[in-house]
Design a protein that fits this description.
alpha/beta; three-stranded antiparallel β-sheet; single chain; binds ligand 48F; globular; 24% strand
């Protein structure tokens, strides 16, 4: 005999335990696109407690749809080694242009993060940051995506971490809210402000992404498209090498910081 109330009880108990176990972590990542997923794997592998919040039901962000719903992704040779780490199958249809299946890529990037020990919560949005007396960022303020979508007046809850990564993609949501709400805040960008992304140039956008991926405010890092949106880098469309390398870079910056 299956008891529906036991099914309900084990779900509630187990999910609540996950939330409580992750209240304090080393790194919180907002956004489970390719950059956030790769960062989670490397951070967790380095022994850092890593929590990732994703607004949507699905994981993978813009990677799932490939280019204009042709759900294939392209990776250049510089980033091929990262897809190889996950055993993602690729074909080199043109020299230096490796093509992979978007669903396989997202599935394996997700499994890689989870197997390394990162905790992913979907259906939760980061809506603000937590700050200390010196206005340093010390965590994330979160709420159910459903609350956000229904525009309900329901207060959020707070998770604490040593570092926070904005991997929210084009919208750069976490940095935007922080800049708005922290008095006199200046970002580590050429203007000290959010510069916004530039129109498409895959060559420049991919290259510059490794420079724009950095700590932009004490305790707050940017990775993936959010990094170019922050520092005025070009967009690059459905080539994903830069996203993977950006995830790796932000993880290395934080590993170095927290282990020093
Ligand atoms: O947009 P997304 O895939 O970001 P990314 O990792 O990769 C960018 C590429 O997909 C593509 C591109 C490549 O060349 O330009 O756009 O930089 O993933 C961002 C994820 O963050 C989630 C969003 O649902 C998506 O899955 N997200 C956005 N805002 C929030 C959030 C938020 N406030 N809280 C939690 N998740």
């Amino acid at each position: 005999m299956l008891d529906e109330t036991i099914i309900t009880k084990v779900i509630i108990q187990s999910y609540t335990k996950d939330l409580i176990d992750n209240l304090h972590s080393d790194v919180i990542i907002a956004g489970a696109g390719p950059a956030g997923l790769v960062a989670s794997k490397f951070l967790a592998e380095a022994g850092l407690k890593t929590v990732l919040f994703e607004r949507r039901l699905s994981i993978g962000g813009g990677m799932l749809g490939g280019g204009m719903m042709f759900n294939k992704i392209v990776v250049q040779s510089e980033a091929k080694r990262i897809l190889d780490l996950y055993n993602i199958k690729m074909s080199e249809i043109e020299k230096n242009y490796y093509v992979a299946d978007a669903i396989e890529s997202v599935g394996k990037l997700t499994a890689g993060a989870i197997d390394a020990g990162a905790k992913i919560f979907n259906l939760i949005s980061v809506e603000d940051v937590k700050i200390d007396e010196q206005f340093r960022i010390t965590g994330a303020v979160i709420n159910w995506t459903a609350v956000e979508m229904a525009n309900l007046h329901v207060d959020p809850m707070t998770f604490e971490s040593k570092c926070l990564i904005d991997a929210t993609g084009h919208d750069l949501e976490v940095v935007s809210v922080a800049l708005n709400k922290i008095p006199n805040s200046k970002l580590n960008t050429p203007t000290g402000q959010i510069m916004g992304e530039l129109s498409m140039n895959a060559e420049i956008g991919e290259k510059i992404l490794l420079e724009t991926t950095k700590e932009v405010y004490p305790g707050l890092y940017v990775a993936g498209m959010a990094a170019n949106a922050c520092s005025g880098g070009q967009r690059m469309g459905p080539i994903f090498g830069g996203m993977l390398l950006s995830g790796e870079k932000v993880a290395n910056l934080i590993i170095e910081r927290l282990n020093s």
